[in-house]
Amino acid sequence: MSDTINYSEADDKELVQLSKDQDMLAYEELVARHRDKIYGRAFSMMRNEEEALDISQEAWVKGWRRLIQFHGKASFATWMTRITINLCLDLLRKKKRQRAESIEKLDDDLGGVERQMGVVEINPSAGLERTELRARIDQALEQLSEAHRTVMVMHEFQELEYKEIAKRMECSIGTVMSRLFYARRRMASLLAGLRKKDEI
Amino acid sequence: MELEAKLSIQALIDGELSAEKQVDIERLVKADSEAQALFKELSNTVGALKESELEHKLPETREFFWSKVSAEIEREDRQAEVAQSRPGAVAWWKKLMVPVGAAAALVVAFTLFQPAGPDVAKTNFGTNTVSTAVTETLAETELEMPDSFIFYMFEQNATVIWVDSKMDVK
């Protein structure tokens, strides 16, 4: 069967079907197509190359095992990204258990300095090229706490609703809302700060 | 402004409010300058973040990354195979335990309840002539007395001496 298939020209749907039939060449093609996206999502959440690499690898192994559960309601890439996010959340929870961060957690939920912060009037994207804006956002993401970054990536980049984020993060919708709110305020402040820095 | 109102302004931007609540918050944003400023800041941030995720490329070649993924899949497959074969082996041993146990019990019973024959004496022998020869499960050693012998049963932790009843033991 493998000899007659042009994997690089087959679409994701076909490759998924072949992979479900244990065709590893088809799965290799899927990995090659989406590996950057999966790694990118893991890196956005973990901000650590080594952890992002390990999670990507684990996600692809899990993907292979769970292909039978994929029914094509979402795209294959979206389905894989969900697996990746769950692995990131597992690792973040594990890391959280290993360290005492009660003060940090309180700040994440109730707002630390963001609570006292005045409204930022600068529009962070005005007059900026998309590539430059992306680089700045990436830089600002690095400075957010894990909890703020996680909720922001899930909402802004993964486009998940409050309810879905709460379910995945095992917390209330209220917690998601307040974390997202303070994450956005911090992000606004960081982007404005980067802008001011450039103007000096 | 209360936090609840601020979170509602955010929910309005995210399209997470009920129709009824949406009307209320829109009214608040129009009427209150602080609410209006916050609405603008949040909208600007959301707008900036939209489709602005920096692409991070996997820092490994296609071949190298796939070799790691496929090796892990194969390793897990092997592990699963071993795990599957293990319960079968246990069941096989369990099946074998019954006949082997029964046979062992028969041998012990037969050894302990010999119908007739020479006198049997049990003792902690441990003397120089016997103990050195005991290395097998059932080790036999001839005594210096003719027609008599001694053996050690490890399972019963006992030394058995067979003595010919017709013979005088001094």
Summary?
The complex is a heterodimer of chains A (about 200) and B (about 170). With about 200 residues, chain A is mostly helical.
Descriptive report:
Chain A has helices at residues 12-20, 24-46, 49-66, 76-98, 102-110, 130-143, 146-157, 162-169, 173-199. Chain A has 200 residues and is mostly helical. Chain A folds into two domains: 1-99, Orthogonal Bundle (Rna Polymerase Sigma Factor, Chain: A), CATH 1.10.1740.10; 100-200, Arc Repressor Mutant, subunit A (Orthogonal Bundle). In chain A, helix 2 (24-46) packs antiparallel against helix 3 and helix 3 (49-66) packs across helix 4 (76-98). The longest helix of chain A has 27 residues, at 173-199. Chain B is α+β, with helices and mostly antiparallel strands. Chain B folds into three domains: 3-49, no CATH class; 63-113; 116-163, no CATH class. Chain B is built from four helices and four strands, in the order H-H-H-H-E-E-E-E. Chain B has helices spanning 3-14, 19-31, 33-49, 62-112; strands at residues 119-122, 138-142, 149-153, 158-163. In chain B, strands 1-4-3-2 form a four-stranded antiparallel beta sheet, with no helix packed on it. The longest helix of chain B has 51 residues, at 62-112. The interface between A and B is large, with 49 and 38 residues.
- How do the SSEs of chain A run, as a string of H and E? HHHHHHHHH
Spell out the helices and strands of chain B N to C. HHHHEEEE
| CATH fold category name of the largest domain in chain A | Arc Repressor Mutant, subunit A
- CATH superfamily of the largest domain in chain A, by name, is Winged helix-like DNA-binding domain superfamily/Winged helix DNA-binding domain
Count of domain modules of chain B = 3
Radius of gyration of chain B: 44 Å
State the oligomer. Answer: heterodimer
Strand content of chain A: under 5%
Total beta strands of chain B: 4
Q: Which chain pair shows the most residues in contact?
A: A-B, 49 and 38 residues
**Low-confidence segments of chain A, ≥5 residues, pLDDT <50?**
none
Second CATH tier, the architecture of the largest domain in chain A = Orthogonal Bundle
**Helix proportion of residues of chain B, in percent?**
40-55%
Query: What is the overall pLDDT average of chain B?
Result: 77
Number of helical stretches of at least 4 residues of chain A: 9
Helix content of chain A: over 70%
Shape of chain B: elongated
